[in-house]
């Protein structure tokens, strides 16, 4: 009887701890309450199929596919509007822009959990959708992301051979490092509780952190990569950008420092000549190429 009660208490505590962890790690949903026109953009709302039978809400902004196409991926707990400061100059440059909400964000479908690999799945879905609507001979295809979206962009790009370029904005170096920062900020000791949490998160997302870490996958990217990072970023320190650049192919990497912190919206305009210069040097990749 005592053993049965003890086991019941242990199971109850484990379930409570699991529920607490899932709540703490869940991304807050910020609804989209505006339109492209209200933001000074020209485009239309579209729906994109993604993994697990889910749908992504997106805006397809008017542009010339022959000039270039870019898919934008936001970060954790925000929505597509977070990248409007990048979308505006891209549209002004004449590029076709697809900006979407990942699952569990904005107006997109809910799913069981969010993770960097699932961000990457949604990036792949957005790229496939845009490519299917583009004729042969179109301009370069580029993907850009911010924060977790940047890490997912690097992961998705490392598995593909059909991209002309990648832009990583305020990306982190390693999910394990990010999780350790998260634990430390909440006063959770690494041993033994933190270690168990890290292993549990790996189990839930279906990947070891080492296998998906941006610092480990960036070398596999076959196209030019631009890393932009705020010098005063306190969410993801500038050292992460330096480590990513050091791990990349030196012939394919460009590192741009921005003023300000993690939210780069105001600072992007200052370095837009560098970003637009990067885009102007990209060459189209045949649509016959497919994810590796």
Pick out its properties.
alpha/beta; single chain; 2 domains; eight-stranded mixed β-sheet; globular; 292 residues; 8 strands; Rossmann fold
Please characterize this protein's 3D structure:
This protein has 292 residues and is an alpha/beta fold. The chain has two domains: 36-174 and 213-280, Alpha/Beta hydrolase fold, catalytic domain (Rossmann fold, 3-Layer(aba) Sandwich), CATH 3.40.50; 176-207, no CATH class. The chain contains ten helices and eight strands. The protein has helices spanning 2-25, 84-92, 116-132, 148-158, 175-185, 190-205, 209-212, 214-217, 238-247, 272-280; strands spanning 43-49, 55-61, 69-73, 96-100, 141-146, 165-169, 225-230, 253-258. Strands 1-2-4-3-5-6-7-8 form an eight-stranded mixed sheet, with helices on both faces. Helix 3 crosses helix 4. The N and C termini lie far apart (57 Å).
Number of helices: 10
Q: Can you tell me the number of structural domains?
A: 2
Helix/strand-derived category reads alpha/beta
- Extended strand count: 8
Q: Brief overview, please?
A:
This protein is α/β, with parallel strands linked by helices and 292 residues long.
